[in-house]
Amino acid sequence: MALSNKEPVSLVQGPPITDIFTPFDMALSCLKGQLRNDVNFSVGAILDQTGKDVVTNGGSGKMVTQGAGDMVQSALFQAGVSLLNRRDPRIIESEAKWGIRDPRQIQASDYYVTGSINSLDFIPGGGFDMQIGGVGPNYSQTRIMVGLDLSLTDTRSSKVVANVSLQKQIAAQDYGISAGRFAGHTLLNIQVGKGEREATNFALRQMLNLATFELLSQVIPPTTFESCRTAIPPEFGRLELTRSSVALYKYKENQKQNTANSGRSLLESSSHDTSTSNEKNKSTNSPSKDTKPPKHKESELIQNPEGEPEMSKQDLIKYISKKQGSSSSSKMNKEKDTQEKVDKEKEDEKTTTLGNVNPAMLENYWSSTQRD
């Protein structure tokens, strides 16, 4: 109360002014820099179509916010998209009519968001009131369910490229304790209580922010929004059956399948390499009848060509060099004076000629010489 009509009334200072923060702002901010800057977005009409009014102090008003379009525009701006303001085109139209603005300089929208808040249902609640000797507790609970639909439309073809439907139950509860007793001829009645209600319009802002994130997620690949989706607290919002949720689920399943296939192929290749190395490490002194021996050097393939117990190193080198080229062997034959060495070299040339005529007979070469 004012003590004098000539003095202003002292104003009550409540909590300080703060910026609005929702649990979904981090997910929207995560999309910054991951969307194309050459694609323009705008927001159309997002109407209140619940049909519910409330009567307050002899007047009537709407039960839900009428500024849902501005909330979606703020959410798009927070996501970092190229945003055009189409909320109030009267200024642009007036300047164009006055001739002070060229309409051709105004950028065109590539996509725009429209929708409505279309359901507001009161869910019957319950409660109890118990008193013993005039003293007891009381409790009551009510719920309101709100639903909305948003769509993202391509302006060139008017095709809906993304759509989302969300709902939320807004909870309200009251509880307290009351006591009524007579003190002599005097009735003493005491009631203490507390009420908790979610802010309806703030809950709608949260729904609109989450719906905006879902619309953007439906037009970008899962690899882009997968990390941003983890920033949504599950206790505040869950998207399970939306289009982006299904796409993300399929993407994760394909990733698991590709990982399993790559691991299986890596295991098979390692086992194949191990078996190959084991085959290479086998001794070549005893040839196998089941498998063909791998390609080795001639010094490893040639073993005891004359059927003798063992050849000297010089004789073995001389034999190999002859097989590689007959010209060098002929020069060596001219330098030999002993008739016994000449006969031996002629016999070697005979056996070598057989292998040169048909190289495929190299595997059975020594067995045929042994039969001869």
Descriptive notes:
With 372 residues, the chain is an alpha/beta fold. Helices cover 38% and strands 25% of the residues. It has helices spanning 25-30, 68-78, 90-98, 200-217, 222-229, 243-280, 298-301, 313-324, 326-335, 339-357, 365-371; strands spanning 40-48, 53-56, 59-62, 82-83, 111-129, 135-154, 160-183, 186-197.
Order of helices and strands: HEEEHEHEEEEHHHHHHHH
* Spatial strand order of the main sheet: 4-1-5-6-7-8
The proportion of residues in beta strands is: 25-35%
Quantity of strands, as a count: 8
Q: Structural class of the helices, strands and pairings?
A: alpha/beta
**Integer average pLDDT:** 79
Helix content: 25-40%
* Global outline: flat
Largest sheet: 6 strands, mixed
Cα-atom Rg, whole angstroms? Answer: 46 Å
Low-confidence stretches: 296-311, 316-332, 350-372
Distance between the termini: 134 Å
Number of helices: 11
Structure, briefly:
The strands form two sheets. The chain has a six-stranded mixed sheet with strand order 4-1-5-6-7-8.
What is the topological layout?
Blueprint lengths: L24 H6 L9 E9 L4 E4 L2 E4 L5 H11 L3 E2 L6 H9 L12 E19 L5 E20 L5 E24 L2 E12 L2 H18 L4 H8 L13 H38 L17 H4 L11 H12 L1 H10 L3 H19 L7 H7 L1
Parallel strand pairs: 1-4, 1-5
Antiparallel strand pairs: 2-3, 5-6, 6-7, 7-8
